[in-house]
Amino acid sequence: xxxxxxxxxxxxxxxxxxxxxxxxxxxxxxxxxxxxxxxxxxxxxxxxxxxxxxxxxxxxxxxxxxxxxxxxxxxxxxxxxxxxxxxxxxxxxxxxxxxxxxxxxxxxxxxxxxxxxxxxxxxxxxxxxxxxxxxxxxxxxxxxxxxxxxxxxxxxxxxxxxxxxxxxxxxxxxxxxxxxxxxxxxxxxxxxxxxxxxxxxxxxxxxxxxxxxxxxxxxxxxxxxxxxxxxxxxxxxxxxxxxxxxxxxxxxxxxxxxxxxxxxxxxxxxxxxxxxxxxxxxxxxxxxxxxxxxxxxx
Length: 298
What we know:
Strand content: 15-25%
Distance between the termini: 46 Å
Number of helices: 8
Structural class: alpha/beta
Shape: globular
Largest sheet: 6 strands, mixed
């Protein structure tokens, strides 16, 4: 790692390289800013650092200028280079400091107030996740399905719909909408015809990202109800993660033999679950898998 002499530094630009900003071109923004600094021989006076998420994902890509305290939303290369010269258009500014007070630009959303765990009963939400289609008719069909489903859902629950791609809101916005409406617990349910990597990888990744922003919100993800398991799990209503070592199963009706189903179902660590998890078994017994010749022997 490099240790620079920063005694001549006058400005420090913090460039968000969180997941959302990276997906919106943060790498290019980083290189454009650094290139402009080099071209103008300002390396000694302007230092840049990559950061993780800064909590303004809606304004991607985010760049923060200290000690001035101005936050920028960089959508174009011109804006990235103008930051170096402090000549950015007003519309690209998220926050600015005026007489020691932080001011939000009128064209920027307020965002969610810093989350504080409330007292009293938890407010729960159900977030349905559709795939999304380039044809709006397909997206309308998903929304209609959710509306028809509401009559079978406890009216005390918040119910929202989001999409993986091609339609709005996306999962990130769907989760934020639930939190804005006061949800402390969010049950994410995929309604996708072909699950593949979406249910096993993409949706769980979005949930993990949301947990970083809303650590006090409890998430559950109903993969087992929608999987291709050989077990009949229709009796299972939901699964609730109580804490890192406790999982709670809720059934539609009492069933004394359900516990035996878990012997076949299997519960594995989250980090071990992926596209090839079945080929890399994990367990807590006295034996360790040494060799597996597919179709022949273990």
